[in-house]
Amino acid sequence: MSGYESKSAVVVGGGLAGVTAALALADGGLRVTLLEGRPRLGGLAFSFKRGELTVDNGQHVYLRCCTAYRWFLDRIGGAALAPLQDRLDVPVLDADRMRLGRLRRTALPVPLHLAAGLSTYPHLSLAERAKVGRAALALKALDLDDPALDAQDFGSWLAARGQSPRAVEALWDLVGVATLNATAGDASLGLAAMVFKTGLLTDPGAADIGWAHVPLGELHDTLARKALAAAGVRVETRAKVDAISRTENGGWRVGTEGERIDADTVVLAVPQREAYELLPDGALDDPEALLSIGTAPILNVHVLYDRKVLKKPFFAAIGSPVQWVFDRTDASGYEGGQYLALSQSAAQDEIDAPVARLRARYLPELERLLPAARGAQVRDFFVTRERTATFAPTPGVGRLRPGARTEAPGLYLAGSWTATGWPATMEGAVRSGTTAARAALSALSRPHDHLFQEAA
């Protein structure tokens, strides 16, 4: 960029936060190097090959209110490959009663957009539906900037507002477990209120669901690499960073096994424990707080049938160990049958269970939920485990999450675990990357109007 002294940046970590930061810094005129220890980009939202099959490590969705992730998809040219529903419509199967209901919206203004769907939702009694409506209005009235919300748990707040265990299971946890990766009793009220207010109580279409119709690697690795290359970013994979230190002239030196790179700016976009190991002394007032940010697992169960057993693209279940089931047949390249992926959040009790035990539990359960599966042959059954899939959204976690700026000039933090205001989602990761880039560009007196604006 003419008129500016040439400046350089190193981004450590090639997940969504790191890729976003690298693109934003390059768009701001910096010479950027992106270092990733794995052989691929995408962080915890990636794909891998299993024979002829292309497998996503887990099912990732986003909502229409995830405006930063939508900005990211546009930036890498992938929006058409991860379309949104025209209108929220979630099939919900009650496994105990074998009754199908739907959570859906109309085009009416908030909160009337959900009134019709809630009034006919068969998994709650009339009295429970009325109490859900009152709790939703109470949520809408909460001030998300109130730090006291972070110290409370969502489950106790719901119970105090008359929400029955059935209402929690059939509605609040149905949404909350999938977005927070925790049940209501284990989740911060602040984060839960943010999810429900933003997704359900702001704009009629905010909760419309989108997901990749291609392997995640095509978006977060292939298209991301193309966008990075076009922006002039040097990308090095299999380049694990082992040291970050100050140089004699006040800049930064980032070391890998193969090289040492000097830069004016560094964005550290790695998980919190890895960030703790790399942070130089004095970068944070309380670096030990990073180690107090817990993690939560997600288990994904993959089943390949010899025939079609599910007509819908996805459904959610209650009264069952099964949570959410997605049809991944076309995206994976599977032919001659149907490939279902089960996304099991808050999976602390099963994350280390042997495959044989998981098979014995989930195949009969799928046959119970899907009659067409009872006569189908299972061609393959396997699991993918993300033991540290997200940070744990426990009460009090908000005070532990650091902002993008550190006490060391020129060093910034990014990652869904930083203080984005969001839980650990793709949206939170992208927001953290733009926030870190904005802070870096501002410190260098570089323009940043090109960045996603709501992330400030």
TrEMBL record:
<feature type="domain" description="Amine oxidase">
    <location>
        <begin position="16"/>
        <end position="440"/>
    </location>
</feature>
<dbReference type="GO" id="GO:0016491">
    <property type="term" value="F:oxidoreductase activity"/>
</dbReference>
<dbReference type="InterPro" id="IPR036188">
    <property type="entry name" value="FAD/NAD-bd_sf"/>
</dbReference>
<dbReference type="InterPro" id="IPR050464">
    <property type="entry name" value="Zeta_carotene_desat/Oxidored"/>
</dbReference>
<dbReference type="InterPro" id="IPR001613">
    <property type="entry name" value="Flavin_amine_oxidase"/>
</dbReference>
<protein>
    <submittedName>
        <fullName>Hydroxysqualene dehydroxylase HpnE</fullName>
        <ecNumber>1.17.8.1</ecNumber>
    </submittedName>
</protein>
<dbReference type="Pfam" id="PF01593">
    <property type="entry name" value="Amino_oxidase"/>
</dbReference>
<dbReference type="InterPro" id="IPR017830">
    <property type="entry name" value="SQase_HpnE"/>
</dbReference>
<dbReference type="InterPro" id="IPR002937">
    <property type="entry name" value="Amino_oxidase"/>
</dbReference>
<keyword id="KW-0560">Oxidoreductase</keyword>
